[in-house]
Amino acid sequence: MKFVPGFDRVLVTVVEQDKMLDGILLPEFSKDDMQAGVVMAVGLDVKQWKEQDRVLFGPHAGMNIQIEGVPFRVMREGEIMGKVC
Predict the structure, then answer these.
(1) Which end of the chain has fewer CB atoms surrounding its CB within 10 Å, N or C?
(2) Residue 50 CA to chain centroid, in angstroms?
(3) Does residue 60 lie in a domain region?
(4) Which pLDDT band, with edges at 50, 70 and 90, does 82 fall under?
């Protein structure tokens, strides 16, 4: 099944920060303030992010959904704080 987010929405799969941020040091307190994920799909109006971008976002950003039993988060493009390169 394929899911295409509407307009300015982004579909993200949440991953463990330790795996994604290998080599990037964050203060211990900030680990609770952000989550990491990989962009899986983008809506037609999304300009900044593309599929497979590794991104950081707040713990309350977007909405949790499940597609075929797999958890994802759908959020507005502006809720993403940045990209991990």
Answers:
(1) N
(2) 11
(3) yes
(4) very high
Residue 1 within a domain: no
The residue among 20, 2, 5 whose CA lies nearest residue 75 is 5
Q: Read off the CATH number of the domain in which 47 is found.
A: 2.30.33.40
Q: What is the pLDDT of residues 14-50, one digit of tens each?
A: 987 665 555 555 555 555 678 889 999 999 999 999 9
Model pTM score: 0.84
Has residue 2 been placed in a domain? Answer: no
Q: Which domain holds residue 15?
A: 9-83
Q: How many domains does the chain have?
A: 1
Tokens of 6: 């509407």
Q: Mention every residue, 6+ apart, whose C-beta is less than 8 A from residue 7.
A: 43, 44, 45
Residue 22 phi/psi, 5-degree rounding, is -55, 120
